Task: structure prediction
Amino acid sequence: MRVLSGIQPTGRFHWGNYFGAIKQYIDLQDAHDGYYFIADLHALTTIREPDVLRGYVRDAALDLLALGLNPERATLFVQSDIPEVSQLCWLLMTGAPLGLLERCHAYKDKASKGLRADVGLFTYPILMAADILAYDSNWVPVGEDQVQHIEVCRDLARSFNAHFGEVFIMPEAKIVPGAAKVPGTDGEKMSKSYDNTLALFGDPKELRKKIMRISTDSRPMEDAKDPETDHLFQLYRLFASEERIGEVSAIYWKGGFGYGDIKKRLADAAEIYLEPARKRRLDLENDPARVQEILSQGAAKAREAASNVLQRAQKACGLK
Ligand code: ADP
Ligand code: TRP
Result:
């Protein structure tokens, strides 16, 4: 199966990005033909500072490789290195009903708040459809928030195929099973938009400080508590072994503990868990040529796939 997904380089990756998305890509790479890309064209709808964008793209590549994305198994590339995708995007735009895009939440939410929405944001789902269709992707692992966009992609593929003949393979969204909805330091969904994130590769001391500031409830220490309702515990279980999770769960049920102790356990567990990736990241940082080579090879392979599909689509609609 060809598995494809993209992630936007719009900030440093946090725990939510890893446990909600990146970890699943990496888990799928062994059994499938994984195509994973850094969606810099999509990021341009929000990041308008060239150096910032360049930095986030570089960080995204380093993070993904350090976290275990294996270029021997999966194809890793940067979206804008594949010009065929933008060409395919135009073919899909012609014939795309306005109403289909007006219903999409990224644009709708922004417009409903009276915020400035540009044409790029409006047509964002079509570029995403081009990303998916360009590689004959079968499965697209995504979080719940992206399912609507996959539906748009399927709609566009279906109507193109119905009009011009069978050009595109119909992709399917794979809602990643067990993908955690990771809470942030305030207990809400972790997101860079809420300023409640915990970084994967930040300064370890800074991270520890942030963990110690995670919000907790004000129930008396003596009270027994259900760990399942506590966001601190939900974070802890992402990093700890089954045995340790059982231990901490028992502490909650017994009561008479301090949240400070759990926070320290969380900081220790996260540090141990992330240590190998941190080391790999340092090695990669010191070898930019290697990272560049991985991305170039990924792009070459991705271009080959995309140019086949583009030619098929161009011929079908009378351009060649
Ligand atoms: P952010 O909300 O910080 O802007 P993005 O929307 O760029 O993050 O998310 C990138 C990927 O990470 C998406 O696939 C999204 O579903 C996943 N993701 C982000 N935050 C979380 C979270 N708190 N829990 C689970 N998955 C998340
Ligand atoms: N829109 C996705 C997000 O914000 C990123 C993305 C771009 C993507 N193109 C894609 C995801 C194609 C899957 C397939 O998370």
User: Anything to note?
Assistant: The chain has two domains: 2-180+288-317, 192-282. Strands lie at 2-7, 33-38, 75-78, 139-142, 172-175. The radius of gyration is 22 Å.
